[in-house]
């Protein structure tokens, strides 16, 4: 599984080795550092709530793939606009300090 974070033309890819043992604090720290470097502080974004749900939406699949991803998009998460992209990709967008921040989660299948 791979997480791609974008701010403007800048991007950062973070591999997620084991989605079932997600180190949310470490992942959020990497994202916050990247966003801070590019003037888009993550203040007000619920990354702690978003990331586990995105991972579960792709890796969990209890309701059948990609049904959980689509259900997550239908329910939504505060401060984020969610989209399901064909191929099992989840995207979350938010505007921070006038910049669009995009997080895309790519499955391994």
Q: What does this protein structure show overall?
A:
- It is built from three helices and five strands.
- The mean pLDDT is 85.
- It has 109 residues and is of the alpha+beta class.
- Strands 2-1-5-4-3 form a five-stranded antiparallel sheet.
- The longest helix has 14 residues, at 24-37.
Topology (elements, then pairings):
Elements: E1 2-7, E2 10-15, H1 24-37, H2 47-60, H3 67-75, E3 81-85, E4 89-96, E5 99-106
Antiparallel strand pairs: 1-2, 1-5, 3-4, 4-5
Helix pairs in contact: 1-2, 2-3
Offer a concise description of the structure.
This protein is of the alpha+beta class and about 110 residues long. It has helices at about 25-35, 45-60, 65-75, and strands at about 1-5, 10-15, 80-85, 90-95, 100-105. Strand 3 (about 80-85) and strand 4 (about 90-95) form a beta hairpin.
Radius of gyration: 13 Å
**Count of DSSP strands:** 5
Coarse morphology: globular
How many helices in DSSP terms? 3
Structural class estimated from helices and strands: alpha+beta
> What's the overall average pLDDT, rounded?
85
Run of helices and strands: EEHHHEEE
Terminal CA distance reads: 9 Å
Main sheet: strand order? 2-1-5-4-3
Major sheet: 5 strands, antiparallel
């Amino acid at each position: 599984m791979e997480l791609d974070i974008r701010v403007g033309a800048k991007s950062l890819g973070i591999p997620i080795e084991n989605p079932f043992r997600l180190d949310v604090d470490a992942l959020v720290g990497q994202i916050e550092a990247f966003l801070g470097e590019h003037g888009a502080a993550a203040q007000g974004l619920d990354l702690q709530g978003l990331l586990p749900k995105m991972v579960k939406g792709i890796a969990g699949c209890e309701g059948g793939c990609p049904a959980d991803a689509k259900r997550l998009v239908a329910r939504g998460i505060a401060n984020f606009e969610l989209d399901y992209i064909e191929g099992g990709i989840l995207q979350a967008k938010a505007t921070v300090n006038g910049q669009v921040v995009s997080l895309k989660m790519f499955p391994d299948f």
